User: Fold this.
Amino acid sequence: SEANPVKRAAKKITESLQGDGSAPADGIPGRPAPEPPSAAEPTEPREPLPAKPDQSGPDTVSPTGQPTGADQARVAQSGSYLTNAQGTRLYDTDHSLKAGPRGPVLLQDHHLREKVMHFDHERIPERVVHARGAGAHGVFQSYGTAASVTKAGFLAPDVETPVFVRFSTVVGSRGSADTVRDTRGFATKFYTSEGVFDLVGNNIPVFFIQDAIKFPDVVHAAKPHPDREIPQAQSAHDTFWDFVSLHTEATHHTIFFMGDRGIPRSYRMMEGFGVHTFRLVNAEGGTTLVKFHWKPKLGVHSLVWDEAQTINGVDPDFHRRDLADAIEAGAYPQWELGIQTFPDTPEQTFEGIDLLDPTNIVPEELAPVQPIGLMTLNRNPSNFFAETEQVAFHVGHLVPGIDITDDPLLAGRLFSYLDTQITRLGGPNFPQLPINRPQAPVNDMLRDGMHQTAVHRGVAPYRPNSLDGGCPFTAGADTSAFIEAPVRIPEASKVREAPESFADHFSQPRRFWLSMSPVEREHIIGAYTFELGKCYEQAIRERTLQVLANIDPELCAGVAEGLGLPAPEPTVPLADVAPSPALSQIGGTWPVDGRVIGIVVGPDGDLDGVHAVREAVLEAGMVPLVVAPTGGSLGSGGSALTVQRSYVTARSIEFDAVLLAGAPAVGSDTTGARDGKGAPLGAQRTAADPRIGLLLTEAFRHGKAIGAWAGGEAALEAAGVPTDAPGVVVADSGSAALEQLRELLGSHRVWERFTTGS
Ligand code: HDD
Assistant:
């Protein structure tokens, strides 16, 4: 036998591969033939998918859930044989090629190298802002009501257009939590028959800055401190408040997200805004200035701060999960698209408000939002990376009939969104990625470059040409985009300065403050107090109090009191502005679709009642979650009830309302805490399980409706929740309790429970 160990090992490998030399029906010569596949597995290699016609429409998703039949082929892992990237079949992907089972790994392992090389490059740079997001597909149905002001084909009557929407937070990294205090992105890609139109908006109608040249500054200030990279996804730190207290044009945006809009209950319950003023062009060439608004059918609702912070630990994917679950359950979220319209006058102002200043709103009471279409999100992405991560929005993706204005913030965005994709998506061919492909024929003369996937034919990608028959030809002005409205530019000199009309930074924030209900004002005071309380620099706190004094003395005094500092006097006259009631989120009633009802039931609870209530909750388009002491099921036989949350996994933040079906289990402390003598507290049985006690007190403090029947009120009493408090219902049956809860949920929370009332 061979003395050299390496040669010996190599010989052994060769022998094991050669065997007796006979090739089995399948598999590698010398290896036993693979087990016959089970009936559930594919038995025959399938034909490869047909080649995709160059740049045809996005074809990236299989329907929600497991595809069946022909669609099965679209599940990437379902083919019969594993291959490498070159289509060569592989017999083993679990072991590296080694010199003997315990010997060194050989460099010649081509498969190992390819597999690890590809893995090493799976990540692409996250978005520099809006890194954390969630997406969904849907459809936009035009009402046709905008047809008189725009020739955009997708806004003509009864036109349906596929859309993809990505919601996001701004500041945090890709893996950060969902319910941080932040602005939310609301970006929509319309795959229209005239090309892609992107509406890249936020859930707040104004922006921090008036000029894009300040964007790196505001983002550097909001991102974690560069030395230690903390805090993650927070504005509650010195650099942020340093910047916004010095740069007072940020005041309006800042008060918006110190308000409840900074912590939305759900992406499904947010408004969206195009922020800038856009210019619409109609078939006759007439122009109108507009602001775009998305109005959610479910109303605009928020978390409370305490709840938001707990969610970040308990379920950091709260918003992402909420969106996907709602779509999966068929509770498709809907928004109406609306426009505020303004005459396109040379001044580009409306009622004295400069329409080119993106820190301004135009109150809806002065210019009503006119609905022009309905968007329904009805399909979850099937691959997060391919769709949600690779989608590339750009404010310059415009279609005929929609044009830009001279808002200086918009101008810089027109550069930034194209530019950023070069780093993020690795080159200029990102429009060829399936999620970014237009659903209109593409006939460009852009060629080559990184990641080119099109095989362009012909020899003359230039104009004019005679070699390719002079093609392609340009379209007439009536069907083309980028026809600039002939706006007159007054004679001017080149300057680096802002117009005088951009100088008032306080009257619009004051309007926002005056438009809030008492409970919303209290939340705003709480938010500023929290955020500034997290700053280390006294000077920054004091400077911010000065900004607040210039908005409103009550606001300033409230925050100053919380910080233990004197409230300064205003340094500008307080603006005499009328409130805009449309800015308040409180006071109406809304549909309860997709609301989550926790049904807490103990071992002796009313199971029949729970069955009936579950059905009623589902019938009302809401989501029931049964909570019981342990997992598994309650009851037996046909009437067994599946437990969805045990006392260990249930937390109040997941529920919009709570129902108690009988007295929950007598419990014991499960935290592992010990009493003064070192005995485990868990040994002392308490009147109601402490985890349910916590669930109830949290739900109560967060203004959630609570109902009880069949003795469930005992748990309320044990938890110290008054049964006669507003929004606490004790009823004879589960269905009677649910009926009242439903009523209460229509106004989102039991607002009377908050200290100021409203
Ligand atoms: Fe921006 C992403 C919204 C100003 C530069 N922005 C981004 C996204 C949204 C917005 C929703 C995420 C898109 C997605 O989901 O992929 N941005 C806004 C709004 C603004 C705004 C409503 C003001 C009205 N943005 C703004 C300015 C600049 C940028 C002034 C630069 C000068 N924004 C970017 C960016 C991002 C981006 C760096 C990061 C990832 C991307 O574009 O694709 O280009």
In short: The chain has four domains: 1-46, 133-436, 506-583, 596-671+683-753. Residues 127-130, 133, 166, 168, 185, 187, 200-202, 207, 212, 215, 275, 358, 391-393, 409, 412-413, 416-417, 420 surround HDD (CB under 6 Å). The chain has 17 helices and 22 strands.
